[in-house]
Write a structure and sequence with these properties.
Rossmann fold; 25% strand; 3 domains; alpha/beta; binds guanosine-5'-diphosphate
Length: 435
Amino acid sequence: LPRVVIVGRPNVGKSSLFNRVLGERRAIVEDEPGTTRDRLEADVEWLDRRFRLIDTGGYETNEQNVYAPLIMGQVQQAIDTAAVIIFVVDARDGLTASDYDMAEVVRRAQKPTILVANKADNEARELAGIAEASALGFGEPLPVSALHDVNVRTMLDMVVALLPDIPLVPESDRTRVAIIGRPNVGKSMLVNAILGQERVIVSHVAGTTRDAIDTEIDTPEGSFVLIDTAGVRRPGKLGTGVERHSVLRTTRAVERCDVAVLVVDGTEGVTAQDTHIAGIAVENAKGLVIAVNKIDLWDDPAERKAWAERQMRSRIRFVPWALYTFISALERRGLSELLQLVQAAREARRRRIPTPELNAVLARAIREHVPPLVHNKRFKLFYATQAGIDPPTFVLFVNDPELVHFSYRRYLERAIREAADFEGTAIKLVFRARS
Ligand code: GDP
C-alpha cells in the first residue's frame, strides 16, 4: 500500500489529525486486532483508494523533543518510504524555527506534500499561522481542525488525488520506442539501419503481435525495445481501409511506448497526415522525436534544413516541445543522434520538480500574467505538486477548475516547462478543486 506520512513539530496536532481520520465515518479503517490504543499506523480507504496512514507524532515522547536524533531518524525513515506527506503546522501560533527545520527535511524528500494548518477552529483567514505558512514553500496551507472536524475530508480528497496511479513497480531500463509515420517515409529502412549497425546487439525479438514487432537491442546510446509497426505487412490491401487500419496500429504501438519516433519524408516535408500521427503521440502523453529522413536526396542541405524546420514549426506547432533531427536511413546517417534524442526524451519523462520550486514558478507566472476573469470570477491557485512521472504529471489545487481558460492552461504549462527541462515529452496538468 502507498504510505501517507503525517509530519510536523511537536504539539501541532499530528496524532489528533491521525485519530480524526480514523474516526471519520466515510473512511474505512482496517481493523487490526491486538493493536494498542496508541497505534501509529492504520490502513485507510477513502474514495475507493487504499493507503497506509502513518503518524510520526507517535514517535515523540514527553521527555524528548523532536530533534532527538533517534526520533528524527524515525521521521526520516517514514518520509523516505512515503508516497505523500502531510506536513502539519499550527494555525494559531506563528511559525517557529522548528517548522522551518521540518520544512527543510520535507523539501529534501521531493515528494508530493500537503501543507495543513491545524487548529483552524474558526476565522481561519485571520490566524497568524495561516498567512505565515505560505512562506514554507508548499503553497498556501489547507486550514483544518482535527478537533472540530474542519476540512479533514478535503485533506483526504487531496491525499487520494496525489496517490500514484499504479504501484511504482521497478521499471525495465529499456526505453520503449515506437517507430511511426505514414507509408513510404522509410520506417522499415530505418529499423533495418538501426538493427544493422555494427555496434548494435539484437538481443531478442520480444514479442510479435498482429500490430507490431518488438525487438530488444543494446547500443552505445542505451538499451531499447523497438516497436516496429512497419514490420507487419498486410499485402494486397490498398485504399482507405489500409489507412484506417494503420492508424489503429500506430495508436496501439504508441500506447506501449515511452517515446515515439515520427519518421517524415524530408523530400516531401511535413504533411497533414504527419501532423495527425504526431497528434497520436501527444494525446497519449508520450515523448516525441521527429526524424526527418531521406536527407541524402537533398541538393541544398542548408536550405532544405531551414525549410523543414519552418514546416515543423508551423505544421507541428502544437508540439513545440518535440525534439527533431535529420537522418538518412539509406546511408545510415544521424542514427546515433536520433537514439540520443530518444534517451533525452526518456530522461525528461522521469524528471521531477521539487514542490517549493514548482510553487515559486507558478506563483511568479501568475503574478506576471494575472488570470482573466471568467464569469466574473478569477482562478486562484492554492498550491501545486508533481504527482508523478512518465509522463511528468502535475496536480494544481485551485478554487475552481472551470475558471482555467484553455490559453491560460497553456501558459502555466509553458511556465512549468521552462522551470525544468521537459523538452521531448508531453507533460500533464490536472486541475482539482479545493475548498
Ligand atoms: P515505410 O513504409 O515507412 O516502412 O518505408 P520504407 O522503409 O519501405 O521505405 C519507402 C521507400 O523509401 C523505399 O523505396 C526506400 O528505399 C526509400 N527510403 C527509405 N529511407 C530512405 C533514405 O534515407 N534515403 C532514400 N534516398 N530513400 C529512402
